[in-house]
Fold each of these.
Amino acid sequence: MKRSWYLHFWAGLLLVVLGAGQSKGQDLVPVITGSAGFIYSKDAGQTALQPIINPILLFPLGSKFLVEADAFLQGYVARSSPGGSYEWQSFNSIEYLQLDYVVNSHITIVAGRFLTPFNIYNERLGPIWIHNFQDDPIIYPIGTRTTGSSDGGMVRGVAVSRPDWLLNYTAFFSALSNSSHFGAGRAFGARVGVFLPKANLEIGTSYQRFLQDQHTNSYGAYLAWKPVTLVDVKGEYAHSPQGQGYWIEGAYRFSELAPLGRILKNIQPVIRGQQFFRLAPGVNDELPQADTQRVDFGLNYYFPHEIRLNGSYARQFSSTGNSNNWTLDLTYRFLFPMPFWPKGGQ
Amino acid sequence: MKLSSSRFVLLALLLLSSFFTLKSNARPQQGNVVPRNAVPKADEAKEGEERFQTNCGRCHHPPEDLSPREARVVVRQMRVRAMLSAEDERLILKFLAP
């Protein structure tokens, strides 16, 4: 155990020395970015408070390599039983710790721990300062088992780039890991997307084969569309042997030029609709046990300095019981260079 | 010798990456990427802003106060994560840290 820590220490030190040498010539600096937030929620009558810190380290190595590390530190304060006292729990995880090698315009090779690239929510909309509703979509567990992260290798990139369209792809494999901070399922999968820049539209499809316990296939499709600058539409469909469903979300940012634009320009109403259909009983699949419908309404307010206040209400309908969900959250996105890093020159 | 599924996928990924690497080294990227001089230099920041809105603006707003050497690192990460082309990366850098 002790030897393992020494190895980690020397590997880390080597990385820092190499990074300093390589990045100095490029005039690059490691960056610490990420977000912090505080979430208040009342879900089916149960109140919870969740402070979250999500720091990300970006460590460049020369002109082709990048190390990315993302830690997710979450507290959870809720009553242990109805009428009982509030209790504190904490959940810490490494979301990703990956080495990226940008080979060329078409291919990037990724090794280590990375976010499982199934549809778009997990990779692109996961951070608390980006997604419009703090509750993940109901179908989120499909294709992202077991932890949303994978330990293994991935290739990705832009296969074809034309002025009118662009084809992107991702293919990955993951090994089984039961480690507390690096847990992952044994799986492989791929995603292909087509982006039409003139229409501001991206559509794509995903596949994942889960290779532990029962071998199962999951399929998905996604859409990201910005028909006009102020309107944003996103959606996903996912299917697994245990269930299938979809979510679709729309957001509207008021224009500065509209009446009362100076006041309204920082406000963004959002709405999301979801349906889930249970196809077969599942154990620990993190999906609802019965067909479920849900609609969310929310309002974002953007303050200066990357601070966002969000409030939302959701109504969920299910044969196991209908419920209301209220959420209020404040998020802050930070980004700064690594302190005391030497300045380089071109 | 029977290959397990994960080894098969690993082998396929390695072959795929070798193919793209060799293809890239064999010849310049013909037509796949807009040539560097396609956009006049004065308009590059504006073009970069448009590319930011098209690619990155679908998920988030531009970060505030980014120095050039921070921007290079952040955009490199987004090139991997958001599947930006090399030309997108270059122009978005012109916008974020002119």
Note: Residues 53 and 59 of chain B are 9 Å apart (CA to CA).
Amino acid sequence: MATSTEIKEALKNVSDQLAKYVNDAATMTVETSYVEMGAKVENATLAARTVIKLDGDSSSILPMKKAADGSLVVDTTIYDMHQQNVQAASSYRAAILESLLGVLRSQ
Amino acid sequence: MANLFETTGMDDPLGLWTPTASTLESAPGAVSFSVGGDEPAAPEAVEPVFRVNLPADGASATRALEASEAQIARLNAALQTVPSRLDGLVARTQERRQKAATSGVSFDTLSEEPEPGPEGDLLAMLASVEGGGTQGGSEVSFGLVDEAAGIAWEQAKAGFDALIQQISREVLHFAWVETNIADALLARTTIGWTGDAQTAFAGGIKSQQVALHNRTLQIVTQTRSMRLQLFITITSGAAKISTLIATPAGAVLALPAAYKYVMQIVEQVKQFQSIPSS
């Protein structure tokens, strides 16, 4: 059974971890990869990557493929999937941040 | 047969996910892949894995996710009511105490209008502390009216301890989110608290299946967010409850009492969900 000291310590640990989270939240990286059905782990291929920084900077690696004329064009199918992942990660981050701020306010 | 919503690790206090011993999907015939990059190829034992096993039929899969989303909405709505319910309980209880003090009758005799439901059980739990808990060193001991009350306190303290451990674990680690459709692993995402995410899709996945995986991710997000909300509700509720405890150990007693009270409300929501609609 936890004692009062242990409960206070546990609450402090949660607060400390949440504070560390806020410090680590300066960037968000989203990666999308793909693998053929039945392929092995090492064959997973990175298709797109987006890095978003809190200061407004962002960078992306886009999935490209060769068109019929040999030029490079964006693979819209994979790019759309990646954009959905970026949106999902952004929503996730917003929802969790809101909850974490609630925790910090309650301490 | 696999559960629709599975997770590794401890029981889900919100009852949304069924605990399972297995970690990552490794069924024969299913595609098995990593998310690559710098992340480990498999989660550490402490990292939670959330797995949704959807049927092949798209309409059935959508209904299953909708049912889960509705349950989350009901739980969230119930948690939102806790602060005002506790404010009302504290006000009514203090009013009764003032009347008791001015009329010279004991507080217990004023319990002619008992509080219904979780509020009544909370007051009964607080009343079970006899004459005030004592605090010596780091140990807290309670003078309890009967053994049953002591067991209830122990269970509430253990439950709150488990919730703190679960939150501490989840703050530190990634979540692994898998979507299986018709027993085939189609998408896996690792996502950290900061939103860093790596997703691997099986080749040939359809756009509707990508959408189902994103919905799965949203449910995991809501699950983790709601666990934090549960923690906030309990700790802020404990602050209100502590005003009803006159013993020196009131602040410590308030946490398990608040845990039991809030979880009773959560149980009511879960029972409501389990009643089949006609």
Note: Chain A has a mean pLDDT of 76.
